[in-house]
Amino acid sequence: MGDASGIEIPELGRARAGTARLRGLRCVHTHLKPSHLSQEDLTDMALLRLDAMAAIETREDGETGQVHVAHLLPIPSKEEDKGEKSTEAGTNGKKQPPWEELHFPNLAQLQLDLDISALTSSLEEEFARIQRSSTRFEKGERALIVLVDTGRQFERSVDSELEELEALAEGAGLIPCGQVVQRRKAPDHRFVIGRGRLADVLMHSMQTGAEALVFAQELTPAQVRSLAEFTDLKILDRTQVILDIFAQRARSRVGKLQVELAQLRYMIPRLSAKHTAMSRLTGGIGGRGPGETKLEIHTRRARDRVIHLERELKTLQRKRSQGRHLRQKRGVPILSLVGYTNAGKSTLLNALTQSEVLAADQLFATLDTSSRRLRLPRDQEVLITDTVGFIRGLPKELVGAFKSTLEELGDADMLLHVIDSSDPHCDEKVAAVEQLLEEIDLGSKPVLRVFNKIDLADDIQAANLIRRYDGVGVSGIDSETLLPFIEKAADHLIQIRGLEEKTEIEHAAI
């Protein structure tokens, strides 16, 4: 029921949930003045996946006039057939809208010409057929990658971010089935990409069988709630995907605690708003009001768990610091491998030390710190450590939770910045790693840049990178390329040690 200004559609829940099914509901309303279906009517139909949206006109004599009916279209555009990313501004552009409008002169003609039950069944069959033909057959949830381009990035950065988010989604077990880029001056404060564009994306999800939307931007709690109210799809952002990968890959006790702490810190402010239906009495006899809500109980328990995890991590951190103190007393130099995730740090560690640390061609394959001994030229022994990989815009929850792991980099005598020389976005990732090192107060630490995977890179490009950054080229799968790197690392370490001894003598003289 509604009034002259509009209709309030009630909460529909997950009735007839399914990527290829319509809602099983039709919205029919009356127009007091002759007019077609409004843009808001059509957008609501798409957002709610209604079987149909209809408006009946009334004439001045009180009789019914024209009847306007709209239904969703299961026919994908050419872009979606090819699997290319869509960058239209919304439903106001030249692109065909994802619905069809039908017009009938009166109700009698509507009854003769339109069998809505048969139409709905045929639409659902067509949606299911398109999904089967346009998606891959791997098991797992399918996801659409959504990015808002505010014009502050170059096109190359947008492409790089989309590629990286797709790789993250695959690492978390999702199957990317399309990309959506929306160009706006700023993300919409409610729907991120705007209400009209969201309708297009939901239609795209029905055509590709997507069950989740993965946003490149970190979503605010309000945006998550607004999106969840308008779609049954799972709403994820980049931070959630990274946290999920970390939860899958953590193996050590410290790693698992750090990931759980990061997840709790991310989750607490995003718990949904209070609702009286979730209330229950917990105060016993004499308590007033609805008592403590389930939300408040969950929030309090989560905060208590955060405090417990922080205490346990501090205890483990003290034990690890004792081990680092013993290594320092023995005077063994420490070299720490740092770099962008999937740059080949673990592969390089295995090649240098003949070890078998887990190495895989995927993002964040290594979360737990590994240390191995390595003998350099001039009979110099060092300890080389592998750490968690960096990524552009590393979530602040992970930086805080992995603080104890990142602090170990401060004990290193030299950082070995491993860089994927075959990556077309190499310069951007070098800058991202150096920025993160500055943020954790390691910008002044001596660094040797190591350009890995030179066997996959263009020879001229790799030579230019090595010369520009004063680095050294290696291949983690070719032992012959390691000797120049080891010699250069030994020379750098001798220079660093010489400067440290000179500084100590000067301080002693003062």
Walk me through the structure.
This protein has a domain at 331-509: P-loop containing nucleotide triphosphate hydrolases (Rossmann fold, 3-Layer(aba) Sandwich), CATH 3.40.50. Helix 5 runs parallel beside helix 8 (238-249) and helix 8 packs antiparallel against helix 9 (253-267). The strands form three sheets. A six-stranded mixed sheet has the order 10-11-9-12-13-14, sandwiched between helices. A four-stranded mixed sheet has the order 1-2-3-4, with helices on both faces. Strands 6-5-7-8 form a four-stranded parallel sheet, with helices on both faces. The chain has helices at 39-48, 78-82, 107-113, 116-134, 155-171, 195-208, 221-230, 238-249, 253-267, 294-330, 345-353, 396-401, 403-407, 426-439, 459-469, 482-509; strands at 26-31, 52-58, 64-72, 99-104, 142-149, 175-183, 212-215, 234-237, 334-339, 370-376, 380-386, 414-420, 447-452, 472-473. The chain is elongated and about 105 Å long. Strand 10 (370-376) and strand 11 (380-386) form a beta hairpin. The chain contains 16 helices and 14 strands. By secondary structure, the protein is of the alpha/beta class. The relative contact order is 0.07.
Q: What distinguishing features does this structure have?
A:
510 residues, Rossmann fold, 6-stranded mixed beta sheet
Task: Break the fold down into its secondary structure elements and pairings.
Layout: E1 26-31, H1 39-48, E2 52-58, E3 64-72, H2 78-82, E4 99-104, H3 107-113, H4 116-134, E5 142-149, H5 155-171, E6 175-183, H6 195-208, E7 212-215, H7 221-230, E8 234-237, H8 238-249, H9 253-267, H10 294-330, E9 334-339, H11 345-353, E10 370-376, E11 380-386, H12 396-401, H13 403-407, E12 414-420, H14 426-439, E13 447-452, H15 459-469, E14 472-473, H16 482-509
Helix pairs in contact: 1-6, 5-8, 8-9, 9-10
